[in-house]
Design goal:
Layout (H helix, E strand, L loop, with lengths): L7 H45 L10 H8 L3 E6 L4 E2 L2 H7 L8 H5 L5 E3 L11 E3 L1 E8 L5 E11 L4 E9 L5 E8 L13 H4 L17 E3 L8 E3 L5 H14 L6 H9 L1
Parallel strand pairs: 9-10
Antiparallel strand pairs: 1-2, 1-5, 3-4, 5-6, 6-7, 7-8
Helix pairs in contact: 1-2
Length: 263
């Protein structure tokens, strides 16, 4: 007697076969597409750095312009605890490369980051990486023209990731850009709106005593150290302010900016 093609056994065999085939297809696609995904991630990162520095205008420039424009920058690695650049020997010993270093991944690696708590964690990020990549534009004399630093901090729904660009004095803001966040569209999500970001250039981060004085104030924006808060997004606005306070402060890039940039 011939076996029943509709038996449970045959059904399981077909289902198993389909699972195996689908797994092979998905695995192959992941391997084949990985280089393309990595290239797109690098393109997106570089474009956001250029936007923060005021060098890329999405209304004028295209993705094809990014590579040539980004060539103006030199990526360098910073030891946040020591407040200085890492040497080539140190980077080799640590296995770090400024062009491929993933600060988000390092933040979750106990070997590359430190836990934060209490007043140390004003940005509510829980862990801070020990090293960071900064992006520098220097003139022919080796003097700073611009510096872009990575920043992140908790908003309303999650951590906001962006880049802050500073002028050569390491105090005057050149621009800001956010490339990842979970804030509410139309409210906190307006941190990505070019009109809101247009307030930032020319603002000062520090006061005359060298303390972080930058604030995001409702109805403000007229002061040297102020930008206007986002309407209906108090917690997001506070999160942005806390983010700047942390990353430009003593646990962030503050010591590095004093030692290496401001001299």
């Amino acid at each position: 007697m011939s076996s029943n093609v509709n038996s449970v056994q045959n059904t399981l065999k077909v289902a198993l076969g389909l699972c195996v085939v689908c797994s092979i297809v998905i695995s192959t696609a992941a391997v084949v597409l990985k280089p393309m995904q990595t290239a797109n991630q690098i393109l997106d990162r570089n474009k956001n750095i250029l936007i923060a520095a005021g060098l890329f205008d999405p209304a004028i420039n295209t993705n094809a312009d990014v590579s040539a424009m980004f060539a103006e920058f030199t990526p360098k690695m910073v030891d946040l605890d020591a407040g200085r650049y890492l040497t080539a020997d140190e980077m080799q010993q640590l296995g770090l490369n400024p062009e491929t270093y993933d600060q988000k991944r390092a933040r979750n690696d106990p070997a590359l980051s430190d836990a934060l708590s209490g007043d140390d964690d004003v940005a509510s990020i829980r862990r801070r990486p020990r090293y960071a990549t900064v992006y520098v534009i220097e003139n022919a004399s080796g003097e700073y023209e611009s510096l872009v630093i990575p920043v992140n901090g908790y908003g309303l729904w999650g951590i906001m990731y962006g880049y802050l660009a500073l002028e050569s004095d390491a105090n005057t803001v050149r621009g800001i850009g956010f490339y990842e966040h979970q804030e509410t569209p139309g409210l906190g999500g307006e941190i990505s709106n070019p009109r809101w970001q247009a307030q930032w250039p020319g603002k000062q981060v520090y006061d005359d005593s060298g303390d972080v004085a930058f604030s995001v104030v409702k109805g403000g924006g007229a002061g040297t150290n102020q930008v206007d808060a986002l309407s209906g997004a108090t917690l997001t606005s506070r999160g942005v302010e806390n983010m700047i306070e942390f990353w430009l402060g003593e646990r962030g890039f503050g010591p590095f900016l004093r030692n290496e940039v401001q001299g």
